[in-house]
Amino acid sequence: MKRDLFALADDNFRGRRAGTADELRAAIWVAERAREAGLEPAGDDGTYFQFYPLHRLTVAASSRLTLNGKPLALWQDAWVTNPINARLDGPVVWLNSLADTTRRNLQGKIVAMPLLPPTPLPAANISLRAMRYTLAGIGQQSAALQQRGVAGIILAADAMAEPSLAFVGHRYQDGVYVLPSMPVPSSPVPILLVRQALTTPLRAAGARFQAELNANDFEYPSMNVVARVPGTDPTLQAEHVLFSGHHDHDGIGTSVDGDSIWNGADDNATVSVALLAIGRAWKQRPGARSALFVWHGAEERGLLGSRWYAEHPTVAKSSIVAVLNGDMMGRNAPDSAALLGSTAPHRNSRALVDMALKANQDDTKFLLDTKWDDAKHPEGWYFRSDHLPYARAGIPALFFTTLLHPDYHTPRDEASRIDVAKLTRMTRWMYATGWLVSATPRRVTVDSDFKLER
């Protein structure tokens, strides 16, 4: 597992960003390891791969921005938050607060104002807090201004948002990804985030803003890697225990201490190599039910690979008995872990939870942190990994994790920081749970009262 971890989280794969050749290369690497382990291909057309289209919209490099006759550098001075084809040319109306909107006719105006703190504020110590703060603030202010019929919106970063502009801005530069079945997020007017230093020229008497904005529309391939080990029971082998993870990460991003490759060792090379280890063990000693392994692509772009597989499984959907998903399984205190989907309202199968708890009690003996499964937990962690589309599709599903840490979604998430012994122990827990699911004659079912809070 250590060998595989250091290989998949190496700079050679350039962060495995979805929709890039780097993600394709990583998927091929995973498929080759599965083939070497003797796992059967279970993707499309007798291969290990299931390809699907990513619809991506970006702001075109040909877009131009000018303030008071001086050009603004796209992605350095200003960030267009929504890919859009639009033209703006006119005076800037400066507002100090949203209260000012009630005293002025803003119909068709280009409005600028400071980014205001969102309500409620993101919880203290929450992951990616500055990004959440900025996104929520932009969403709330732009919604209010659009109701006033403005033609364009310019928000100047405040002291909270300014230090994270490069990180938040990379999200906007990357654009929007959706599956063909998903609606494309859109806004009727351009919305821009600019540096705090531009507050003064925006407020100047006679300030004028011009923009020529163009949007690109692409379709990229992404892929799931799918492999299988047949079960030994003549009847039960038609059913599947699905082990789930994702092989993609964030690619090349904002440089931190000279490192711009976001390798995603914990997120989620750990589980990618865990599934390979479970596959090797299952091949050596198959369970009664068949084991299905799905390494999802494009998880970081919105759980797109798992959404696609839940909608287009390569086996009969009714044959999937349970989904055991892992995400980030190699950090934090050696004896701590979490099992999301184990408490209401996230628990969708009491029988499956009981098997996971028994496997932990009998073997791995982790101290389980249940706080992160609470519907009121500010992270909303249950809704951020690949078990979710399966749970929504009515399949028993659990989420194994060792939770977040300060290196989450930074270039510091390196293989050298992974506790390989803990990762191995977490892998044993997933394996043992899957073995119980496979061996039990009566399949686990979804609880009749299961209903997610959102």
From TrEMBL:
<dbReference type="Pfam" id="PF04389">
    <property type="entry name" value="Peptidase_M28"/>
</dbReference>
<dbReference type="GO" id="GO:0008235">
    <property type="term" value="F:metalloexopeptidase activity"/>
</dbReference>
<dbReference type="InterPro" id="IPR045175">
    <property type="entry name" value="M28_fam"/>
</dbReference>
<dbReference type="GO" id="GO:0006508">
    <property type="term" value="P:proteolysis"/>
</dbReference>
<dbReference type="InterPro" id="IPR007484">
    <property type="entry name" value="Peptidase_M28"/>
</dbReference>
<protein>
    <submittedName>
        <fullName>Peptidase family M28</fullName>
    </submittedName>
</protein>
<feature type="domain" description="Peptidase M28">
    <location>
        <begin position="224"/>
        <end position="431"/>
    </location>
</feature>
